[in-house]
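name: query_chain
kind: protein
chains: 1
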Amino acid sequence: MDAAFTAEQDEIRRTLHELLAKHCGPQDVKSAVRTPVGHDGALWGRLAAELGLPGLALPEEYGGVGCTTAELVLACEETGRALLPSPLFATAVLAAPLIAALGTEAQKRALLPLIARGERTATLAVPGTGLALALGLTGANADGDWAGGGRAGGVQGRRMPDGTWRLYGEADQVLDGHSARLLLVAAHTGGFARSRALLFVVSAEAAGLRRTRRTTLDETRTQARVQLRDVEAELLGEDESVDVHGALGATGRTAAACLAAEAVGAAGEALERTVAYVKEREQFGRAIGSFQAVKHRLADLYVQVQAARSAAYYAAWDPGAGALALAQGLDALRAAASEAVQLHGGIGFTWEHEAHLYFKRAASDELLFGPVHRLRGHAAELAGLFDPAAPEVRA
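structure:
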């Protein structure tokens, strides 16, 4: 495998880095998350118009740029570095690939060009806390219980005599759920006899749809409670035989690689800010960065971040390694955020300091997409490491 990036890939990274460095500093982030939509709409429009970011990995025939997962991963590393509040992850990493994989030709031609141009944001709504499971990151998603399981709770889908579908239920942790113009809702259908989970397209203007923005630990990744009360929906795909679980699993592998890159970008930026601070802060007449104990801590952290970056880049070419790369990235971000808080001293422990933006992102991402030990455990199961029939490995 050639791990070197092409000139075009480096240009995408450089252009995005320069744009975000000018318009997405810590104070810009804090201002953006307090807007009604939870992000800077003008900046999102520039990212869509000038860089084609929402459609970066979509086919050109549907208005996209036609790039690969590698370019999307590089873009996510830069947005993670800036902790950019935006609909990018929910729209381009979760919703758009599912529409491209499962949608009918008419659905793809109607929805994907709008997404690629940034004119319509989208998200995936999964009931409860089952997003990581639905994406196949922390366990097998084949049983579909994460969509409702035929019991009270979750989202239930019912086919009406005229062939239309109606949804009833709620999802509590929907990324960008309060602002997305298009929702892909995972719902349980068929009762107990023909139990299955399907995806449905729901417009933000649908009657009976109620969306409420939630207060979250990490304001840069907004969440909402989505309630559906007899909401009319359109089945994503030709019929009920579409492979929803397979498409969600494939999307989950790509999403894990992008999340790993986001975590690595954030960890690298937290480390750089900490290194810059310890060079300036003085104690006993000298910069604290000159103390050997501080040097050792930052050197260990640098190695950890670089290892996580290598894992994320590998996952860009082989999304099958995404879950392990994500686990390593989350570990690195948590360590970098913790060191940033501690080495910034008394000011670093104040909730308002920028170091806590990284701390909150680390804690929130592990709650949403982990925890780390489950990411690694499921990857080990898939690799057959826990198979009792496997031959014993002797030292």
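note: The chain has a mean pLDDT of 93.
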